[in-house]
Design goal:
six-stranded parallel β-sheet, 354 residues, Dihydrodipicolinate Reductase, domain 2, Rossmann fold, seven-stranded mixed β-sheet, 13 helices, 2 domains, binds nicotinamide-adenine-dinucleotide
Amino acid sequence: MKEKIKIGIVGSKFAADFHAFSYARTSGVEIAAVAAIDNLEPFAKKWNIPKTYADYKEMLAREDLDLVSVCAPNFLHHDIAVAAARAGKHVFCEKPLATTTADARDIIATCRTAGVKLFYGEDWCFAPPLKRMIEVIGEGGVGKVLYVKAKECHNGTHSPFAKKKETCGGGCLIHLAIHPIGWVLHLLGQSGNNKVVEVFGKCNGGLRDNYVHQENGGEDFALGVMKFANGEHALIEGNYITVGGMDDKVEVYGTEGNIKADLTFGSCLNVYSRPGYKYVIEKTDNTLGWTKPAVDEFLNLGYVDELAYAVDCVRRNEEPMYGCSGALGLACIEIISAMYQSHETGAVVRGKWG
Ligand SMILES: NC(=O)c1ccc[n+]([C@@H]2O[C@H](COP(=O)([O-])OP(=O)(O)OC[C@H]3O[C@@H](n4cnc5c(N)ncnc54)[C@H](O)[C@@H]3O)[C@@H](O)[C@H]2O)c1
């Protein structure tokens, strides 16, 4: 078993920051290098990273890394993940695994051929409230699950790359709704037999067709329905029209009960503030009046535990479970592609995914 796991991060901003935060909280880990096209020095200084690279290929060629975190824009995930695998490094890829199903399959095949592990970053699978929810469901607490309603919504992406359809792969369906899609697959599709057999998608069309973000190439509103082989339905939402902070909610309805989680507004703190203060939760633009500030936000959203889990798998030479695997990442992209197709045609799309 390896004592110290050496990490390289590609990216230096939002996602790279929660990766670095999570690695810093994981024992036996060293962030050895970072590669990005901007914000390199401030990022390296903040996280005490000794080596910086303007070109990730140079980092992969020069550094003796165990695991590479891919925290660059969506359209680069394929090239970076494939290059890291070919350089013999294990790969942790942020969501989405890729922007096309062909690229997602290629990443999985390349990692397999190279003999490296591929981790897919669906943090919801590691969020403590959602892990507890799965335990309660597993204990039969709500009977047989019939219907799941889940969403991630906020007031718009901060990332210039996510605003463009070409660099994002779409709009809020691929960028936000991918979280509830991945988590529902993790909940209902673990056995491997309960495939998604029907999907329906409805979005607005990007640019002038958007409700609010008419400069965004991709949609700012998206709904999806998934039907599983065992009969369960899931209603998925992702949108950029929700003001007041990131709204991540899950509701599960079963034959004997129901269970609900509020990932972002469920804080145990209630603050009333006249002058305001620094930070409430992700994407809030206001800290006045009554607010519920996040407590240990990166832990609660699952980032800390998903990266600790990946490090542990590398250390123990174990393959990731479905919730953190390339297979889950591929299934998400297949389902999202089918939802976009459904939106275009207005028809339900049938298949076998997950
Ligand atoms: N799991 C989550 O909840 C979550 C949250 C936010 C972002 N993400 C994902 O993380 C990824 C990054 O998103 P972000 O919000 O940090 O984006 P961002 O726009 O804030 O940062 C993009 C980063 O990519 C780097 N970059 C751009 N081109 C590059 C290149 N050619 N080589 C190396 N680095 C390059 C930039 O330097 C920058 O550091 C996206 O894929 C996004 O989907 C996941």
